Amino acid sequence: MRSIVLKAQGLKKYYTSGENVTKALDGIDLDIYYGEFAAIVGTSGSGKSTLLHMLGGLDTPTAGTVRVGDKELSRMDDEALAVFRRRSIGFVFQQYNLVQTLNVRENIVLPILLDGGTIDEDYCREIVTLLKIEEKLEQFPNQLSGGQQQRVAIARALAGKPSILLADEPTGNLDSRTSQDVIAFLKASNQRFQQTMVMITHNPEIAQMADRIIRIEDGRIKTSVPGYAEDEHVKMSDPKTADQESPADMQTRSAAAGRTETSRTETSRTEASRGKSASGHPMEGGAEQCSR
Ligand SMILES: Nc1ncnc2c1ncn2[C@@H]1O[C@H](COP(=O)(O)OP(=O)(O)OP(=O)(O)O)[C@@H](O)[C@H]1O
Ligand SMILES: [Mg+2]
Q1: pLDDT tens for each residue of the chain, 292 residues long
Q2: Which of 50, 148, 255, 271 lies 20 to 30 Å from 288 when distance is taken between CA atoms?
Q3: How far is Cα 46 from Cα 44, in angstroms, rounded to an integer?
């Protein structure tokens, strides 16, 4: 049985302003499994970022719980929560959240240094080379384009090899070629370090590269299906019953689609290694050092 890394139960987030109540999340039950690469999709304002923030312990729910292993995030004190986030979670924010007074190199290694960790120089070089920011390491965020800042945010989230990566539209500001490279890299990293990844995207092609697509509507999960089955499922789904599927349902659907989760994983592995570096990463090569 696959183990659950993140478990949201009855998750609600309501914002009240005068008489208006915005139900950003309205009862989310969601299991994220160890090592899976899940995409969250949905229209603007449907609650995707709110959900991701809750999963990462960055915001507190109005009701419901998020558990990481046997720990309930809302019961952890601020310090324990901060340590958990720094050690276990890499977060790519929708607005990047780079520290403006630090240069690119310093931004990338900041979470590692805050946690007293050791910087893996080779891995840092690999990341900045893939993301094509090796020439920008001494520059400051306000000297970079939006897409370059987004790539720095991705590098920062990955540099500490977190066990969980939560990424909010990590390719939203990138051209399609660079987006494909970034997603291929994320998938290779997911396989190489057995990372669990949850990624919000508006791009259907990128969503299809995920193991599972979770569709959010009005703060609720509308569907949760294997990536390649999404189009078919949306056509077939009954909005009243098309809530989250159990892993058994997903496997049944996979079999019906003539492909299995296993074959998909193997495909990912093949993609990760095909014509790419021995380490399994899509690109590898000399870059400026990540730290002086
Ligand atoms: N701090 C806040 N105060 C009040 N309402 C909020 C707040 N944050 C989010 N909301 C509301 O909650 C709803 C969900 O917002 P959220 O940012 O999760 O959407 P999203 O799916 O990420 O959208 P997008 O694709 O545009 O990023 C929206 O209606 C938004 O206006
Ligand atoms: Mg958002």
Answers
A1: 689 999 999 999 999 999 999 999 999 999 999 999 999 999 999 999 999 999 999 999 999 999 998 889 989 999 999 888 888 999 999 999 999 999 999 999 999 999 899 999 999 999 999 999 999 999 999 999 999 999 999 999 999 999 999 999 999 999 998 898 899 999 999 999 999 999 999 999 999 999 999 999 999 999 988 876 555 444 433 333 333 443 333 333 333 333 333 333 333 333 333 323 333 333 333 333 343 3
A2: 271
A3: 6
CA 76 to ligand 2 centroid distance, Å:
25
Atom 16, ligand 1: residue with shortest CA distance: 47
3-228+245-289 carries CATH number 1.10.10.10: no
How do strand 196-200 and strand 37-41 relate by DSSP bridges?
A: parallel
Measured in angstroms, how far is the CA atom of residue 103 from the centroid of ligand 1? 30
Q: Is the pTM of this model over 0.85?
A: no
Residue extents of the structural domains in the chain: 3-228+245-289
Q: Nearest CA to 81 among 89, 73, 93, 69? A: 73
Identity (one letter) of the amino acid at 62? Answer: T
